[in-house]
Design a protein that fits this description.
Diaminopimelate Epimerase, Chain A, domain 1, binds adenosine monophosphate, inorganic pyrophosphatase (n-terminal core), alpha/beta, 2 domains, binds manganese (II) ion, globular, 12 strands, six-stranded mixed β-sheet, 11 helices, six-stranded parallel β-sheet
């Protein structure tokens, strides 16, 4: 297990010429903003770069620069492999382990090596070179420093991408991962031309009617435990069909139900297309949901984590809520 210095990562990226960038399944603002930020920086340095993800880009992130240049492998058949030039480096962002990138249809044997850049405390150091900083609010914050170390001249497009990464992973500068350095970087990005109000309008004021309908249905099903410390709710495939909403439209429900007075932990259970139950956890203060999610093969950050469980939504909810109750009592 080796954690490299950021300047070492900068030196390696400067030395090589061919890159593939990828990030985790269920793309979020940090994954996409960081990918595009780094894509633009490496392109500015004259490199050959491709961004390849398993999942399709959610509609709300279509405003990001160069978004149409991202390849998605969701609909490719199992046999398909992307062409890989000799001496290609795979850079994986915001992913605590390599399985998190899903199937991106590249032959890993043709890759020279992996560079792993992340801020999850549970990162498994799967790269030949790793830069893991659990104190960083987001990978976007790390890449701001990396860009400077590589000698990039940060421009407005890069700033929009990195600001998106930071604003989404900090819950608009509200979560405990928001530090003085986060604001300092954000200030610089605004000076480079980011319009904070216009940018967050794209992300947060761009809901479809179906998104609010599925939120309404999920809120109707909200439950709290007898001590009012845990809130939870569910979204089934049937609920998605009835409200005509897509999977990507249900991000954020877990944060809404955490807003209840007294509640310390919230859990959100959803049926996925492939027969799993994806569980998202959020907490206020001390309760560490990263540690909790690891008991179920997942992980994340102290106040935001998740896991995927095989089972029915009813069984999974019962199991996880009773385990949460036990943990909170300890
Ligand atoms: P989410 O609830 O999907 O918004 O995820 C919250 C945080 O937990 C993010 O930092 C994710 O990367 C992490 N996370 C979610 N699901 C998993 C999982 N199955 N394994 C590891 N980390 C996860
Ligand atoms: Mn992420
Ligand atoms: Mn992140």
């Amino acid at each position: 297990m080796q954690n490299n210095k950021l300047c070492e990562i900068a030196e390696i990226l400067k030395k090589y010429n061919n890159f593939i960038i990828s990030s985790h399944v269920h793309l979020d603002g940090d994954a996409l903003g960081s990918e595009i930020g780094l894509y633009l920086m490496l392109r500015q340095l004259g490199k050959d770069v491709r961004v390849i993800n398993q999942d399709k880009t959610p509609d709300i992130y279509q405003f990001l620069p160069c978004i149409e240049e991202i390849a998605c492998t969701e609909k490719l058949d199992e046999e398909y492999f992307f062409d890989i030039k000799p001496k290609t480096i795979l850079i994986v962002l915001d992913s605590s382990n390599l399985d998190r990138i899903g199937k991106i249809h590249i032959d890993i044997k043709q890759i020279d090596f992996i560079v792993n850049i992340d801020h999850h405390p549970s990162n498994t150091f799967y790269g030949k070179y790793n830069y893991i900083n659990p104190h960083a609010s987001s990978v976007g914050e790390i890449l701001y420093g990396l860009g400077k170390q590589m000698g990039c001249i940060l421009n407005k497009q890069m700033a929009i991408s990195l600001y998106t990464a930071i604003v989404t992973d900090t819950g608009s500068f509200r979560y405990a991962n928001t530090k003085a350095s986060t604001f300092q970087i954000a200030l610089d990005l605004v000076k480079l031309g980011v319009n904070p109000s216009r940018l967050t309008d794209y992300i947060y004021n761009n809901n479809k009617l179906s998104s609010l309908k599925i939120l309404g249905e999920a809120l109707r099903k909200i439950k709290i435990d007898s001590s009012s410390r845990i809130s939870w709710t569910i979204v089934t495939r049937d609920m998605l069909i009835e409200t005509k909403s897509k999977d990507e439209e249900i991000e954020g429900i877990v944060d809404k139900i955490l807003s209840l007075k007294k509640v310390k932990v919230s859990a959100f259970f959803r049926e996925t297309k492939d027969g799993y139950i994806k569980v998202s956890f959020r907490s206020k203060g001390e309760f560490n949901v990263d540690q909790f999610a690891r008991m179920f093969g997942g992980g994340g950050h102290p106040n935001a984590a998740g896991c995927s469980v095989k089972g029915t939504i009813k069984e999974t909810t019962k199991l996880i809520i009773s385990k949460l109750q036990t943990e909170l009592d300890n």
